[in-house]
Amino acid sequence: MKSLWDEFNELGTEMIVTKAGRRMFPAFQVRVTGMDPHADYMVMMDFVASDDKRYRYSFHSSSWVVAGKADTQMPGRIHMHPDSPAKGSQWMKQIISFDKLKLTNNLLDDNGHIILNSMHSYQPRFHVVYNPPKSEDVSEMEVFKHFIFPETKFTAVTAYQNHRITQLKIASNPFAKGFRDCDPNDW
Amino acid sequence: MKSLWDEFNELGTEMIVTKAGRRMFPAFQVRVTGMDPHADYMVMMDFVASDDKRYRYSFHSSSWVVAGKADTQMPGRIHMHPDSPAKGSQWMKQIISFDKLKLTNNLLDDNGHIILNSMHSYQPRFHVVYNPPKSEDVSEMEVFKHFIFPETKFTAVTAYQNHRITQLKIASNPFAKGFRDCDPNDW
DNA sequence: TTCTTAGCACCTAGGTGCCAAGAT
DNA sequence: ATCTTGGCACCTAGGTGCTAAGAA
Lengths: 187, 187
Fold this sequence. Notes:
2 copies of one chain form a homodimer.
Chain A: H1 2-11, E1 14-16, E2 22-23, E3 29-30, E4 40-49, E5 53-58, E6 63-69, E7 78-80, E8 86-87, H2 88-93, E9 96-97, E10 102-104, E11 114-115, E12 121-131, E13 144-148, E14 154-157, H3 163-172
Parallel strand pairs in A: 1-14, 10-11
Antiparallel strand pairs in A: 2-10, 3-9, 4-7, 4-8, 4-12, 5-6, 12-13, 12-14
The structure holds a DNA duplex.
C-alpha cells in the first residue's frame, strides 16, 4: 500500500474518528523478514502524537494551520495484532494487515479501540516483541523493536476537511464505491 | 441454544459439509464456570465418530438406516477457539461460541476446517486445557478435561435428507430467511 | 440410482461518505 | 462559527438452501 499512502500523504492524510470506532484507510500493512521461524513473536501498533499542537483546516488557503497547543492526551493504547502470538514463520509467510484496527474519539471507549484527539496529528508505529527460547542469552539481543513509516502520518478528524482527501478516499476505498462518479477501472 | 439443539436432535440433526467449508447450525455454544480467573486456558472442539457405520436416508420410511461399515477416517482435527489462550475470567465472562468453525468433506483441506465423512454420524466434544501457574503441584490436578452434550450429535450430509430438518433450519437460521413462507415473528 | 458440485437469489453484518440537525 | 453526531443509501463480504448439471 506504500504508493497509496504516499498519494494520501502528499495531500495531508486525514483519518475519521467516531464514537463507535472507524477503520483506517488505507490500512496499515507491513511485511516482515529475518525472524526466527520457530520463535514466538507478538506484533502490535500504537500511535504517538506528531507534535504538541492542535490544528484547524483553513479552507481559505486549503491547508492545515496551527490552532493552539495540543489537548491533554491519555497515555496511548496499544493494538495487539489478533494473530499474536505466532511463530516467525507465520508472520513472514504473508503480509501483516491491521485492517481491523479502529480509531475512536471516545475517551471512555470500552472496545479496545485506539483513542485519538480530533484535529491532532499522529504517527503510527509498528512494534515487534521477540519471545526468545529459554536457552538463549537474552542480554545480548533486542527483544523489543519498533518501526516508523513517515508516510503513514495523519490528522484525526471527525469529518473530512480537505476535499481532495475525500475524493481520493472515494476513488480508492472499495466500500465507498457508491459515491464514485465513474468507475476508475474504466481508466 | 440447548432447546434448539433438542428440537433438531428429535428429528435427527444433519449438518452440511462442503468442499469450501460450511458453518454448523445451530452453532456450538457453551458457558463455563469454576475456572481460576487468573490462569490461562485453551478451549477447543473436536468431533468423534458416533459409531463405525455408514448411513443412508430411507425416504420410504423417513428414517436413517445403516448402509454398511464406516469409511476410513482420518485422525480428527482439533478446532482451537480463536480466543485461546485466555484467562479464566475472560472465558467465564460470556458464552463461548464456536460459530466460526466450519465442516468440510475435502480430505485435502488446507484451511484448518474439520474434515468429516458424509453420511456418517458424529459427536462434537468440548475440551478445556488448563495451564497451571508454575507454583502449583500439577500432579494432583486435571489439566485436560472434555465435555459431551449428546443432543449435539449429527449426521454429516452434502445435501439435506430429512425435509423436516430443512424446514427447521430455514425457520431458525437468520441467513435462510429468504426461504421462509411467512415471518416466524408473526407467531 | 445416488451422491456431489457450482452458480444463484436472498439474506445478515458491517464498512463508506453524505447530509441535516444538534452541540459547543 | 466550528465541530460533532446519527440516520441514510450504497457498497463489500460472506452465510443460506435451491436448482440443475455433473460425477461415481
